[in-house]
Amino acid sequence: MKNSIVLKIITTVLIVSIIFSLFSCMNGDRIEVPPVKLEDVNGNYKGRLITVQGEFRAEKVVDFKIKKDTLTFPEFPLKEIVMAVVKDPVKTRDALAAMGKVKYNLNYTTVLNADKNWIELTFSPKELELQIPVDGVNKKTVVTVAAKQKGYFIGLDHTLRFALAAEKITVNGTELSPFEAINYNFPYCIKTN
After folding, report:
1. Number of folded domains that form the chain
2. SS (H, E, C) 152-173
3. Phi and psi of 98, rounded to 5°?
4. pLDDT at residue 155, as a whole number
5. DSSP class per residue in 124-138
6. Which residues cross the membrane (predicted)?
7. 71 and 148 inside one domain
8. Best exposed site among 31, 41, 74, 158 by fewest CB in 10 Å?
C-alpha cells in the first residue's frame, strides 16, 4: 500500500516537472519579429484580390504601388462595377475594352505599433468617377468606395492586408438600385521590390 502511494507521488511529480519543462522550452523559442519603419510600407506589391458581391466570388492577382501616403492601382478592378451598370455580359466586355486601364489613388495615414513590428494603415478613399460607354453613349458613373477596416503591414514577412468596398453607384445622377456592395479583399499582398 505504501509503495503504491509513493509510486503515485513520484509519478505526479515527474509529470508536473515534464509539463513545466515543456512550457519553459516553448517560451524560450519565441520568434523575434524584426522592427519596421513607416517607410517600409513603400514599394511595389503583387496581391491576391478576392472580389465578393452577394453569391458571386472571384479571385485574381493585381499589382499596385505604395509611395509616401498613397496606394496607387494602375489598373483598378472594374469588371463588377461595369457589370452592375451595364447588366449585359457582352456589352460589359466591350465597355471594359473601350475604357482601358483606370488608375485609382487611395490615400492613407499610418501608425506604428508600440513594439514596432507592424504598421496600421487608415484609408481615406475618394469617389471613383468613370465614363462607361454603352450603346454609343457615355454613362457618368460615380462609385462610393469605403474602407470599413484598417490595413496592416506585417514586419515578420513584409506583407500587407486590407479591404475595400464599392458601397454605392450613381449613374447620371441616379443611385443604382437594387445594388449589392462589391467587396474587394486583399488578404495577402507581397512586396516585389
Report:
1. 2
2. EEECCCCEEEEEEEEEEEEECC
3. -70, -35
4. 86
5. E--PEEEEEEETTEE
6. 5-23
7. yes
8. 31
Same domain, 24 and 51: no
Range of the domain at 4: 1-30
Phi, psi of 150 (to 5 degrees): -80, 160
Are the beta carbons of 40 and 119 closer than 8 angstroms? Answer: yes
Same-domain pairing of 23 and 59: no
107 and 69 in contact (C-beta within 8 Å)? Answer: yes
Is the per-residue pLDDT at 102 higher than 90? yes
Quick check: 28 pLDDT over 70?
A: no
> Same domain, yes or no, for 69 and 141?
yes
Which helix (H) or strand (E) segment holds residue 52: the answer is: strand 43-53
> pLDDT value at position 33?
66
Average pLDDT over residues 160-171: 97
